[in-house]
Design a protein that fits this description.
With 656 residues, the protein is α+β, with helices and mostly antiparallel strands. The protein contains 17 helices and 24 strands.
Length: 656
């Protein structure tokens, strides 16, 4: 069951003590409307599992980020007013000190609490309207475990079933169902700057008895909400059951094993054993499984083998290449283990060896600690520079990137809407239906290789570490992005944006023409006229020649140049510049001199899929006569456009 959160206000009278502690009112029995219905947290002593908070070791976080622990929670208690409270002590770290000062000064006043639902009961209201406010007179309809509830709600309301907002039942004029959470476990609290984002539906602002009423200004800024019945809950109070550490540990292990068996297909061979051995909580293990569960097509986190920062620094591509060159992995056992771990996840062996994505992505090229002092003392390798390459810009424009794909992906879309016609009072309506289409992504190979001397590899793998990473990684990345823009769709290439059927086309002239203001307005209009109205993810993609020409071209006589400085330099939109955008196209008599320019009203409509991990092969044979080794990196990728009408191109600009 994914964690839920609720946001409450820190009472001003309890904001901070001299011992760096604060009192938090965590939750109450106030109803809370989500998409699936109205949720009420029972605060009966038997309903709230305080074993997590009672260990006085669970975290006070910042914004629910587990990497930002700023304190610890302790002394949880449910009061006679049926409000769950605890104390929180702030760390003395620099980050925690900053938050503590803001809390003490009344600047940060909201705390959001995360919890898991273990049991939840759908309740039916009493027949008498005057009894609605007394939940003891409601009747239970169905009882769910947390997992059962999650599965049913996902089927009914989708992945965002727990989202904050008006219940979906209200859209049909129905009364939302009411659910009483009869067993739940709080496990963390977070200081947050504002109530949780309603668009993701995991938080809200609530009031409890100890919180002062909002000011007139606050009331004026609040958004109106659909009325929610607020039944008072009268439940029998019971003494909280205390369990020994041994009993808690047995329950933890049993729960982990049950969850591991249920979700075995999402786990690696050692995941369950590691969770039991390392003391991982049931909630943390559930979080881990939820991260692994994606669609049947993709799992963007699956390829990660879980390297720690220390292990990432330890990983050496040079050691792996040297081992593959001489056929002896005795000095590169760690690198081989990493490759084998990726192979197990992907279900297939590499042609050479796999690079774990963590090490591939997190390496800081060229720093002294990672490039180091190289082989020859008279060789200024610290001044080594890479070649100048085409700039990578699709990511900054907002292209959707799906990494770690393990199988082909279909992205459905509606291509044509239903047609509604007018008829007379008793006329017959004609049948209509929307048309659908899909964009399919399947692996296409992008490859790059570098040739180095066998002596250099054997003499010092570290001497080549930065150079090989730069050359292989950047060459593959530039190739992937170039094909995403210009790919022809042949057997060896995927179809790039410029050649995607259905995108808008702007023509400058029979033989091309110099870039003018009208061309860029026409690109924008081509998208807008197809109902792809520009928004915050809009922008142009051009090359350096077009940019240079625009810096020398006026809007009109006595007006400024078309290219303006700042974040929105072209027609009030963003503009990315890369020489992956071609400048050697042909139009009429203008042969191999025309440049392209593109506009996207929403660049997230373009999707770049990256399949699997990077596969490195080492070939010491082809160039054996010259004592060289060819090192090849293969990256499998594909590109597609979900809504072609969101893009337009001009392929005949004469920019010099």
């Amino acid at each position: 069951m994914p964690p839920f959160t609720r946001t409450v206000k820190i009472p001003a009278t309890r904001a901070a003590g001299d011992d760096r502690t604060i009192d938090l009112a965590i939750s109450s029995e106030a109803p809370y409307e989500r998409w699936f219905g109205i949720e009420i947290l029972s605060h009966d002593f038997s309903a709230v599992d305080l074993s997590r908070l009672a260990d006085n070791a669970h975290p006070l976080l910042l914004n629910h980020c587990t990497d930002d622990q700023i304190g610890v929670l302790f002394d949880p208690i449910i009061g006679e007013d049926r409000v769950l409270r605890c104390k929180a002590k702030f760390s003395r770290s620099a980050d925690a000190e900053e938050i503590f000062v803001d809390v003490r000064d009344g600047i940060r006043q909201l705390v959001s609490v995360g919890y898991f639902i273990e049991e939840i009961v759908e309740m039916a209201p009493p027949p008498a309207p005057e009894d609605i406010g007394d939940l003891t007179k409601w009747s239970p309809v169905r009882t769910f475990t947390g997992d059962q509830f999650q599965r049913e709600m996902r089927e009914l309301h989708g992945e965002t079933f727990a989202r904050h907002g008006q219940a979906t039942a209200r859209a049909n004029g129905d009364t939302p169902p009411t659910f009483l959470v009869t067993r739940w476990t709080p496990f963390e609290a977070s200081i947050v700057p504002i109530p949780a984002d309603p668009s993701v539906g995991i938080g809200r602002s609530t009031g409890v008895e100890t919180i002062p009423p909002p000011s007139a200004d606050d009331q004026a800024t609040q958004q109106p909400k659909a009325p929610i019945a607020a039944p008072r809950i009268f439940l029998e109070k019971k003494t909280m059951e205390q369990k020994s550490p041994a009993e808690i540990e047995i329950e933890r292990r049993d729960a982990l094993q049950a969850i591991g068996q249920q979700y075995a297909k999402y786990l690696g061979p050692n995941d369950l054993a590691d969770a039991i051995r390392n003391g991982r909580s049931v909630e943390a293990f559930k979080d881990y499984i939820i991260e692994r569960i994606q669609t049947k097509h993709t799992d963007t986190s699956q390829i990660h083998v879980g390297l720690t920062p220390k292990e990432i620094r330890r990983y050496s591509l040079g050691n792996a290449i040297r081992a593959a060159t001489i056929g002896d992995w005795s000095q590169a056992g760690f690198e081989r283990e990493c490759s084998e771990a990726v192979a197990k996840i992907m279900g297939r062996s590499p042609e050479g060896f796999y690079i774990p994505p963590e090490a591939f992505r997190d390496f800081n090229v060229g720093t002294a600690t990672e490039a180091g002092n190289l082989v020859a003392t008279d060789l200024r390798t610290d001044l080594f520079v890479d070649v100048l390459r085409n700039k990578l810009v699709l990511g900054q424009l907002g292209v959707s990137i799906l990494s770690g794909l393990t199988s082909s992906v279909d992205l459905p879309r509606k291509s044509t809407a239903s047609t509604i016609g007018t008829v007379t009072e008793v006329g017959s309506a004609t049948e209509t239906s929307p048309a659908t289409a899909k964009v399919s992504l399947s692996p296409k190979r992008a490859s790059a290789f570098v040739e180095v001397s066998k002596q250099a590899i054997i003499q010092s793998a570290l001497a080549l570490e930065s150079m090989i990473r730069d050359d292989l990684v950047m060459s593959a990345a530039v190739t992937v992005e170039n094909l995403s823009i210009n790919g022809s769709g042949t057997a060896s290439q995927y179809l790039g944006l410029r050649n995607t059927p259905g995108i808008g086309t702007v023509v400058s002239g029979a033989n091309g023409a110099a870039p003018a203001w009208s061309h860029f307005v026409d690109l924008e209009s081509a998208c807008a006229n197809a109902n792809a109205e520009p928004d915050l993810l809009s922008g142009y993609l051009i090359n350096t020649r077009v940019r240079g020409k625009l810096k020398q071209t006026q809007f009109a006589t006595n007006l400024p140049m078309i290219w303006q400085n700042g974040p929105f330099p072209l027609n009030g939109y963003r503009a990315a510049v890369s020489n992956n955008v071609p400048s050697s196209l042909t139009k009429g008599t203008s042969t191999t001199v025309c440049s392209s320019a593109l506009f996207g009203s929403d660049w997230s409509m373009a999707v770049l899929g990256l399949f699997g991990a990077q596969d490195v092969t080492v070939d010491p044979y082809t160039l054996a006569a010259t004592g060289q080794v060819r090192i090849t990196l293969n990256q499998y990728a594909d590109f597609g456009v979900r809504q072609p009408s969101a893009f337009a191109k001009n392929d005949d600009l004469l920019a010099g």
